[in-house]
Amino acid sequence: MGIISLKTSHPIMGINFSGSQYGFSIPVGVAADGTHLWVANLGNNSVTEISTASGKPVQTLSGKQYRFNQPWSITSVGIHLWVPNSSSNSVTEINAKTGKLVQILSGKQYGFDRPQSVEFDGTNIWITNSGNDSVTEINAKTGKLVQILSGKQYGFKDPAYIADDGTHLWVTNSGNGSVTEITASTGKLVKVHTSFQLAGPTQIAFDGTNIWINNFGNNSVTEINATSEKFVRNLSIGTVGDMDGNGMVFDGRHLWVTNTGSNTVTEIEVTNGKTMRTLSGKQYEFKNPQFITYDGSHLWVTNAGGNSVTEILNG
Questions:
Q1: CA 179, CA 213: separation in Å to the nearest integer?
Q2: What share of the chain is helix, strand, coil (3-state, %, to 5)?
Q3: What angle is formed at CA 179 by the lines to CA 174 and CA 183, rounded to 5 degrees?
Q4: 10, 24, 119, 190: which one has the fewest Cβ atoms less than 10 Å from its Cβ?
Q5: Is 272 helix (H, G, I), strand (E, B) or coil?
């Protein structure tokens, strides 16, 4: 995925969007396509579209044609959106310009089993399957299966999220505290990393140089150099219970991590690993914050416990 440069990094206020007009019901996954925000609603099997310019709801996608079934995450790939349906072992592709259904991928040939997250490598999409410890590769243009990666050599155990560093894919295994590194062009295994002080690794992000991993098990973030594969540092943030969220995003300069236990969001300076600030308080209205995304100027956080989305304005 591309890196977007951030002009400034001083959050000055938060705006919370909620209400029946948004159709939020346990909002979790979130993605920005350049002009609109898309939110996956786990509670009512829908996807909400919001204008990033105004914050106003555009439409809520639901119904049999989309076959959403506990959509957990959502990923923007060009003009299309990909939504894994964890309870129906399928993936829904949507046209982001119109909101119309493109196709639904399902069936044994894809190997889907509790699909959780999607990553795009520039050509193909990769989907983690936490139910059968595998990763499915699909051609993004055609929707055709490329291959399914599985087996002991990959070390997959409850694979959660994927980051692309331009050459390799990094897959977090929340079930065994490891990260699997794969060559994106071939799907061949590079290495299964079992050190780095990983504990229940979940969300993962690439900052252009290093890989950052959110550790659910020990309330920390691990930094790894993507080229040398060497450990850089492990950061403890907040108190126990803080770092148990799934949200992590790089904005071109800083890393942002959601903390579900304390209803906060932490900003980290990637050049030195220092915590810049922790956002909290009534102005943000974080409540069980889950995923976070960046649209080029603003940050957006889904609040699963508040059925809302918080926009963080930077000035």
A1: 9
A2: 5, 50, 45
A3: 135
A4: 10
A5: coil
Evaluate whether 196 touches 222 at the Cβ level (below 8 Å).
Answer: yes
Distances (CA, A) of 98 to 136, 223, 295: 27, 39, 19
Residue 51 has pLDDT above 80, yes or no: yes
CATH classification for the domain delimited by 28-244, as one of 2.130.10.10, 3.30.1780.10, 3.30.160.250, 3.40.190.10: 2.130.10.10
Q: Would you place residue 3 in the very low, low, confident or very high pLDDT band (cuts 50, 70, 90)? A: very low
CA dist 5 and 77 (Å) reads 19
CA dihedral 271, 227, 245, 220 (to 10 degrees): -60
Q: Give the per-residue pLDDT at 156.
A: 98
- This prediction's pTM: 0.93
Least Cα distance to 25 among 41, 1, 12 occurs for: 41
3-state secondary structure of 221: strand
3-state secondary structure the chain: CCCCCCCCCCEEEEEEEECHHHCCCCEEEEEECCCEEEEEECCCCEEEEEECCCCCEEEEECCCCCCCCCECCCEEECCEEEEEECCCCEEEEEECCCCCEEEEEECHHHCCCCEEEEEECCCEEEEEECCCCEEEEEECCCCCEEEEECCHHHCCCCEEEEEECCCEEEEEECCCCEEEEEECCCCCEEEEECCCCCCCEEEEEECCCEEEEEECCCCEEEEEECCCCCEEEEEECCCCCCCCCCCEEECCCEEEEEECCCCEEEEEECCCCCEEEEECCCCCCCCCEEEEEECCCCEEEEECCCCEEEEEEEC
Domain boundaries, the chain: 28-244
Evaluate if residue 315 carries a pLDDT over 60: no
